[in-house]
Structures are given as C-alpha cells and as structure tokens.
Design goal:
Layout: H1 32-35, H2 54-58, H3 69-82, E1 86-93, E2 99-105, H4 108-111, H5 115-126, H6 133-142, E3 145-151, H7 159-173, H8 177-183, E4 186-191, H9 196-201, H10 222-233, E5 238-245, E6 250-251, H11 265-286, E7 290-291, H12 306-312, E8 315-322, H13 327-347, H14 351-369, E9 395-398, H15 406-417, E10 424-426, E11 430-432, E12 436-437, E13 445-447, E14 452-455, H16 461-468, H17 487-490, E15 495-498, E16 506-508, E17 526-529, H18 534-550, E18 556-558, H19 560-564, E19 573-576, H20 581-601, E20 605-609, H21 613-618, E21 625-627, E22 634-642, E23 655-661, E24 665-667, E25 673-676, E26 687-688, E27 701-708, E28 711-716, H22 727-738, E29 763-768, H23 773-782, E30 787-791, E31 796-801, H24 813-821, E32 827-831
The structure holds zinc ion.
C-alpha cells in the first residue's frame, strides 16, 4: 500500500515574483469538524423499504453488472417518483441525442419546486465578493452546500456510473446517521454518466471522437456545455469525477505535481487535507490498496478536476479504479471513495460555505493587488525550474477594432461570461502606461473605445488568469497534456495586460451568444479521409468532422479503398487529418496512390494536417521536406508569421499561434511557405508554454501551399484545429478550403522522395540527460517495451511505442513516466500522448 506522506502547502504565501519556491510545511491542523465524524461512515445500512432498490426496478443489484444508460435513467426516474427527497432532470443532450440525466437528492424543503433554483441563486450571491457581509452570513447559515458526483466521462470507464447510482440510492433510502449527516448540510447532485454515447458504444470518447476530459474550458461538445451550465446554476463546493485506468491500485488525491499556479488555496486545502485523508482512512480500514501523488496532476484546464478547482473554487477530484477488475470490486471501491468524501464534506458543516465565500473574496483581493499566485510543489520533492515571473496583472484587454476577428472575440467573451467572469467594454479610449501585448515587450498604448476590459479584481480572478494568461508557467518539465491554452492566443485575438492602477470608463458587455459561421457560397465538394494511427488519428478526424459541421460545410467520408476505386472524382477538396502516413501509404496500395496523385494533378486540392502532410512527400506532391524534431515541445503555442499575399491569410492578420506538439520540422521554398516561424532575433518570436530547444524552429515552415500539376497541396505541419479550440489557425484551414487559389503558386516537385521513417502517433516521449539514460533504458526494458532512442551529446530521447493508445488507456505508461520523473533535474521533458 502507498504511504501517505502529505507535504502541505498551507495558506499561500501570496509571494509575487517568488523565486523557486518549495513549500513544505507541516500538516495543517485538520479542521475540527472533520476530525471525528460523530457518525461512522460505514455503519451497517438501515434503509426505508419504500425507496425502490435497483433490483426492484431493474432486476439487478448495483455492482452486480454494469447498467446501461437507459437503465441508469430509468432508475433515476424511479427514485424521483418514489421519494420527495429526489428530483431529476436533463442537463444536456449528447451528440447522438441521448439525454444526460441527473438527480439531486436533499431535504424535501431544499429540492421541492423552486427551492433548488433559489439555492443556486443564493450560492451565486455568496460567491460574489461584492455581496454585503451580513447577507453573505445569512446565506452561509441558511443554505446547503452543493456536492457533485459524476462518473463515466470516458465512456468505457463504467463503474463511476453504477457507484453514483448506489450513492444516490443510499442517500435517499438510509435512515441511519450517515445520509442524514451529509444531507443536514448539503444537497448532492448525481450525474451518473457524462458520456452516454460513449457508454453505449463502449468507447472512451463521445460520438464525435472528443476526449471530454480535455474539453472543459473550450466546452466545444454539447455534453460539456450542458454540464457547465448546470454547474453554474448549482455551483459546486465539491466535484468528484470518477474514472477507470490501467494501474492495479486505486487512485484518489492528493494529486501529482504540477498544480496550476493560480488555483485558490482553499479548495486545494480541502482536497489535500480533508478529502484525501478521509479516503485514506476508509481505504486503510478496508485494506484496499491505493496510491496518491502520482500520475494525475492538476495542470491542464480541460479536466474535470482542474476546472471545478479553478473556475468554481470547488474541490475538484479525479478518482481512478483499475478497469480490469471485476464489476463488484470496481463499483465497490468507487462507492467507498465517494461515500467517505461526502461524509467528510458533511462534517464540515457551515465552515464549508464560509471558506468557499472566503476564497472568492481573497481572489478579488489578489486581483486588485495584481498578484499572481506563485508556483508551488504540493507533493513532490524537487525543484521549481520555472517560477511565475515577478509581474503585476490587474487588467486584461481584448481588442475589438479588427472586424475580421469579431467572431473570435465574441466566442472568447462568451466563454468568459459563461464562467461568470465580469467583462466590460471601454466607452472612451484608455491610456495604458504599461500595456503589454501578448508575447511583446511592455509599451505605452491608447486602447480605443470598444476594447473589452476584464479586471482581475473579481471573484473569478483565478479563472481569468487561467483563461487569459500569456503563459501557463509550468513549474517543472513533466507533462501529462499540452502546456498552453490561452484564449486570446488560440483565437488569435490582439490583446494584452496591465499592472497599473487604471480607472477605465466602461459598461458591462451584454451577454454574448455563440458566433454562428457564415455559410460558404459555392462550397467545395469536400471529402475527409480518416487515416489509421490509433487514438491520435481518431481524435484529429473527430475534431475535423465537428468543426466542418460547426462551419456548416458539407462533406463525405472516404476510405483508402474508395480512393483506390476512383471515389475522388466529383470532389474538389480532400482533407486528411492527422494519422500515420506510413499506414496510409500502405492502405492506398499502388492503385490508390496513383488515383490520389492523378486527382491532385488533375485539379484537386489536397489538404493534410500534421503527420498526414508527410504523405504528400511520399507521393511526390510537394517540394517541402521534413525532419524529426530535436526540440522538446509537448504542446505549446508558438507564434508564426503569415504571408499577407497568401489567400490563406484572409482575416487572419500577420501572425497566428500554432499548437506545436513534437511535430516534424518542415522546410519549404520561401514562395511555398505561407506561414513560418520567425527567424532568430525577430520580435515576433514567442512561445507560450514549455519548450526546450525551440530554436530549431527559427525560420522553418509551418504551412505549405503549392501547385501540383493543375491541382494544389496545402500542408499543415501542426493540427490547425487542435481539439477544435484553436480557432485562430482553423481559419487558415477554412481559407484553404474555401478561398481562392494563390496566383502564380510555385509548382511542387514531381519525383517521389526517399522519406524518413514515419512517426507513430501515440508515443510516450522521455527526454533525459545522458547521466540517467541507462537507468531509463533499463526501466523500459523491464516492461518489455520497445523504444526508438535518439542519442545526442546533451540529450537522450526515448520514444516508447504505446501501440496507438493514449496514456490513460495504456496499462503502464503513466507509471513509467512517474518513475522517470523521479530522476529530477536530469529529466528535460516527459510527454504522454
Ligand atoms: Zn478516464
């Protein structure tokens, strides 16, 4: 069993500009109420027989086998019909039209018609720091906390659903002291499945192929959008996201570092000092093996733990149970973790809401003072190699004076407003003495009337920083996901920050609707060819299909066999998302390769994304070449320069931000290179996120546009539609599909080239100093795994083949990464697919 050795952060030091800061304070005094619950959480249940059991309604006990989504919905209905303490409803409709059904259980006076709405209103007043203190105190006294239990966001990780239903049943039926001790102080929202389409299809992703545990801040999918809107209506103080994974032992927080720097200390304290210990106690009591502090970090803002933490100041937590274990064990352990946590929440009584309020007030104070929270390590021994810099941020601004960007500004403003951020519009021009544009040096500026102003002095300060930051300031180089996501960068909107005391004249911005794409006049007849290549290929194709639908562009899907049989005839454009070019080349066969090449040379437009672009090289359709990267860039936003004479530049502007994630390094003749990374010393050069060795990209090509015969190839070295949230570069893709062809485009080379070995998407990348390379090699060997090894004088890089699986799906990728992370400063970068 894992040892529980908490390294608490204590209260934040609010150190602005702290140098490397490792906080290692003794364990906080455990809040008094949580120390000894008066009621044993696992006392034998005493139940009210009038509440229907799952066996009575569904003919099975919960935990006997996995229920279907329909059975889950039926049981929610049955409980709501039978008990005045339960109401149910739908919070979203999935891509395939299934309801996301939830239930709320609580005291009758709190769940009867109108009462829940009022609780939501009161809690939203409580989280507003401007609500007068006496009103806040009354709300704290009279209002229950809202605790959320959600499962199955990954559709093939089922047990969270069944455990959530068991929790709902027990909260409804139990008459012993347990349920009452929770419901004395809280209502519990139960969302058994966040991904009904995935549960039905037994797939991790939703029907569009999105990993919805990466979609939270961007909220592109209807399941995410509906969930966030219900969270705003019933704002949580706790959010449990129950998953499954491949490790034998159960995981619950404390999490692994890194932790995103601007998360409030209050919800982190709950997670690390209240709920973590409560689960530890329960698992210890029943002898259930578990681990903490490894694998599951709190960095990326697309997760079901980081978003509740940062956006709601709630205790957002990921639970993980081995998916290979029998159903009763999986459901039982999920239940144990959830129940122990709910009991610990109930034991906090009124203190929970008082502290929750306090964090919002504190956030506003930090924002008024321009303080960013420092990077801290909460668990690891080690070193912060990348501290949050010594800058004051009191205001963010988004320019609105480029009419070509109105949809992008509107989308970002809406996302902010829909996380309860106050957004204003300047009514008169504003002098900003220290204006710092994204990725530029500080320079005085006069911002025109109409500019959007987002003050940091508000209760949502942490979320504002998380969404509008220039950089995520990853504390040390361990990456479970991408390291950059800033809204103005992914939307390619001009904006900046100030740390000055300003008194802007401004009006609140009216609620913004989601922008609707203009329909395309004379739309091209478009086909999409999804390549082989595991999870990475599935996702890129899914993002593309979702985006084409959102852009209201019709398309049909083609396979390699259909291409070989001549199906490209009648199409104007073929878009090929990311995938394995080697497998695609093989799948086409000789006939398919000839058909594709002839179609392009005869006038077709081939648009390829990321690794699919290598296929154009193999087919002799481009003069561009590529090399494997020697840099370590596990998902950063890098500014590139866009040729203003290119039709791709329409509405984009002179620069845009490429999401770069261990992509190939492309070279093309200058006239074909329509977007490129800036040369060394160019002030346009800026990287948001972690990068080592990025100098390799200076002057290199990012997007190629060339004629091939009477056709055309447009090659993106990166995915311009990454998770469908990089709208700034998706515009280049839209222009490539719908815009005019470039006049006098250079002709591509005619001959097939020898090409380097193709990349396999879905590799674990371990970049280390030579001193520990042998140890890493040994760890890989112990797993019986194969790795491609690139040895340099400063750096040894291992690319471990995960067979096309993501790290979540893979049985040991995360554990291996954790072991290598233990080599500390000899680790340059670790990137999990
Ligand atoms: Zn999962």
């Amino acid at each position: 069993m894992a040892m529980f050795t908490f390294r608490g952060s204590g209260r934040s030091k609010w150190a602005t500009g702290a140098a490397a800061l490792v906080v290692s304070l003794p364990l906080l005094a455990v809040p008094q109420a949580a120390a000894a619950p008066s009621c044993d959480p696992f006392t034998p249940p005493v139940v009210d027989d009038s509440v229907p059991t799952a066996r009575e309604v569904l003919g099975t006990d919960l935990g006997e086998r996995e229920v279907t989504t329909e059975e889950s919905d039926t049981y929610l209905r049955a409980l709501a019909d039978a008990s005045p303490n339960v109401v149910d409803g739908e919070l979203a409709t999935s891509v395939q039209g299934r309801p996301l059904r939830y239930a709320v259980v609580g005291q009758e006076k709190w769940v009867r018609p109108g009462a829940l709405e009022n609780i939501g209103r009161q809690l939203n007043r409580l989280r507003d720091p401007n609500t007068p203190e006496p009103v806040a105190q009354r709300i704290i006294r009279d209002t229950p906390a809202v605790l959320w239990v959600a499962g199955n966001v990954h559709g093939d990780e089922e047990s969270g659903t069944d455990a959530a239903l068991r929790v709902l049943y027990e909260l409804t039926a139990r008459t012993d002291c347990t349920a009452q001790s929770i419901l004395d102080n809280a209502v519990v929202v139960v969302l058994p499945t966040q991904n009904p389409d995935g549960r039905e299809a037994d797939t991790r992703r939703n029907a569009y192929g999105f990993d919805m545990n990466r979609d939270w801040f961007a909220r592109t999918q209807p399941e995410t959008e509906g969930k966030l809107e219900k969270l705003r209506e019933l704002p949580p103080q706790m959010f449990i996201d129950a998953h499954e994974m491949g490790s034998p032992d159960y995981f619950f927080p404390p999490n692994a570092d890194p932790v995103y720097h601007d998360i409030g200390e209050t919800p982190l304290n709950w997670v690390y000092n209240v709920y973590g210990p409560a689960m530890q106690q329960a698992f210890g009591r029943f002898g259930i093996p578990y681990f903490n502090g490894e694998s599951y970090d709190l960095m990326y803002l697309g997760y079901g733990d980081t978003v509740p933490l940062t956006g709601f100041n709630a205790a957002g937590m990921t639970f993980e149970k081995n998916s290979g274990d029998p159903v009763p064990e999986r459901v039982g352990e999920q239940y144990t973790a959830i129940w122990a946590t709910l009991m610990a929440a109930g034991a906090q009584d009124r203190q929970l809401l008082a502290e929750w309020r306090g964090e919002h007030v504190e956030a506003q104070r930090q924002g008024a003072a321009g303080e960013l929270e420092p990077n801290q390590l909460y668990w690891n021994d080690g070193e912060i190699t990348n501290p949050v810099p010594d800058i004051a941020v009191k205001h963010y601004f988004l320019r609105t004076d480029d009419p070509a960007k109105s949809a992008e500004v509107q989308r970002l403003a809406r996302r902010l407003q829909r996380m309860d951020v106050d957004v204003y519009r300047l009514t008169t021009p504003l002098e900003v003495p220290d204006y710092t544009e994204y990725g530029r040096a500080e320079q005085p500026a006069t911002l025109p009337a109409g500019t959007l102003w987002i003050p940091m002095a508000q209760g949502q300060k942490h979320w504002v920083q998380a969404m509008l930051n220039e950089n995520s300031y990853v504390p040390f180089p361990y990456f479970y996901d991408v390291t950059a996501w800033s809204g103005p960068l992914v939307e390619n909107i001009s904006g900046g920050r100030s740390g000055a005391d300003l008194r802007p004249r401004a009006m609140p911005l009216p609620e913004q609707p989601e922008p609707v794409a203009r329909p395309v006049v004379d739309a091209p007849r478009t086909a999409v060819w999804q390549l082989p290549g595991g999870s990475a290929a599935t996702e890129s194709a899914g993002w593309l299909r979702w985006w084409l639908d959102d852009q209201r562009m019709d398309f049909g899907d083609l396979t390699a066999e259909q291409i070989a049989a001549g199906a490209l005839a009648g199409h104007d454009v073929l878009v090929v998302p990311n995938g394995s070019d080697q497998e695609a080349f093989d799948a086409l066969g000789e006939q398919g390769r000839a058909a594709l090449t002839e179609w392009v040379r005869g006038g077709g437009t081939l648009i390829a994304l990321r690794d699919a672009s290598r296929l154009a090289v193999r087919l002799g359709l481009t003069s561009a070449t590529y090399a494997e990267p020697t840099s370590d860039i596990p998902g950063a936003l890098i500014r590139m320069q866009v040729d203003q004479d290119s039709p791709l530049a329409e509405g984009v502007g002179p620069t845009a931000w490429a999401m770069y994630e261990y992509e190939a390094v492309w070279s093309a003749p200058e006239e074909s290179s329509v977007a490129a990374f800036p040369a060394e010393g160019d002030p346009d050069w800026y990287v948001s996120g972690f990068a080592e060795g990025a100098e390799q990209l200076h002057g290199k090509t990012a997007v190629v546009d060339e004629a091939a015969g009477s056709g055309r190839v447009v090659l993106f070295g990166f995915d311009p539609n990454y998770r469908a949230f990089t709208n700034g570069t998706a515009k280049l893709l839209r222009n490539a599909m719908t815009g005019p062809r470039p006049a006098n485009a250079p002709q591509a080379a005619a001959a097939v080239r020898a090409v380097p070995t193709a990349a396999t998407p879905g590799r674990l990348i371990l970049s280390v100093r030579p001193a520990v390379a042998d140890q890493v090699q040994r760890l890989i060997g112990e797993r019986g795994a194969s790795a491609e090894v690139v040895r340099g004088p400063e750096l040894v890089r291992f690319k471990v083949d995960l067979g096309g699986l993501s790290a979540d799906e893979h049985p040991w990728a995360r554990r291996l990464a954790d072991q290598v992370a233990g080599f500390g400063r000899d680790v340059v970068a670790i990137s999990l697919p």
